[in-house]
Amino acid sequence: MFCFEYGTSNIYAQLGFADAEEIPLKAGIVKDIADRIRAAGLTMSEAAAMLGTSQSDLLLALCGKFQSFRAAELRSWLERLSFPLQRSPSRMDGFHSRYFPCSGSDGLSRIG
Fold first, then answer.
1. Fewest C-beta atoms under 10 Å: which of 45, 61, 62, 106?
2. Are 59 and 102 in contact, with CB atoms under 8 Å apart?
3. Which domain holds residue 36?
4. Per the confidence metrics, is the pTM higher than 0.85?
5. What CATH number corresponds to the domain at position 60?
């Protein structure tokens, strides 16, 4: 017979992460950043320049390695991407694999 315990809905808090409350918040912001970059058809270089950061830092954040970034910094990136989006189909072909190399076709992170 199994015995189940119910805890908080934040698994990071249950696992003892110091920034447990910020992790889901940061993940949501980064998802919105990625969606905006993708919808605008920006390259990593263009997006990094627009955000005022390096391509390597942007890539880390987009691949889920955002623990070293403050939520306020990520929010400022998102604000810089808050412009009317115009989809550019010709630039979007193969966008995910070209500009988000941390994800494969299965969407799983490949950066260790």
1. 106
2. yes
3. 12-82+91-99
4. no
5. 1.10.260
